[in-house]
Amino acid sequence: MSFTGKAGGFVGAGDDTERQKRMKVYREWFDKADRDYDESISIDELHKVLTNEKTAFDMNTVKFLIRLYDTDNNGSIERKEFYKLFDHIEDAQTRFIRYDLNNSGFIDEKELGLALAEIGFNPSSGALKSIQRRYGYNAADGVSLDHFLRIYTVASHLNSRFSGRVLNRPNWIEISRDDFMDLALNLP
């Protein structure tokens, strides 16, 4: 059993029937990933379900996902957390596929800029280069799916936290020091 990212082709499905089908696939993935049958997915179990011959998730991304979706802070992912996690992964993968314009399996700098602009995060060229350095940009290939997932998650979080603070200048916000500290300390 390994993650293909397609959940039986039900990515983005909206009606109840499609959601039920997607949940069935998630249950199957969870049951196969839970190798010790303790009703939770450890970091190693999640790494195995996300890594296969097509997709390699590095351990830093897996740890990031555990921190983000482990709402009870027990160091593992239970069933409900797993379902939310895979909804998020599928959303990010759908965007990744949409912006991998040359079908290389990687997002280059231009494609990354387009993907971030779609969620309202319009980084300058310098900021885009910083993002790429921070999240594992490979100059020969670009950003892999697992690194894109981290970039997308952090950018979405920042964008939602900045809404309502936009000034009349593009890409500028107004933020207090207290809000900045809160934001910095609560980044995913």
UniProtKB/TrEMBL annotation:
* Source species, domain of life: Eukaryota
PROSITE patterns cross-referenced by the UniProt entry: EF_HAND_1, EF_HAND_2
Q: Which SMART domains match?
A: EFh
Tell me the Gene3D superfamilies matching this sequence.
EF-hand
Tell me a GO cellular component. Answer: cytoplasm
Please provide the record's keywords in A-Z order: Calcium, Cytoplasm, Metal-binding, Repeat
**Which GO terms fall under molecular function for this chain's record?**
calcium ion binding; calcium-dependent protein binding
Where in or outside the cell is it found? Answer: Cytoplasm
The EF-hand domain sits at 21-56, 87-122
The name this protein goes by in its record: EF-hand domain-containing protein
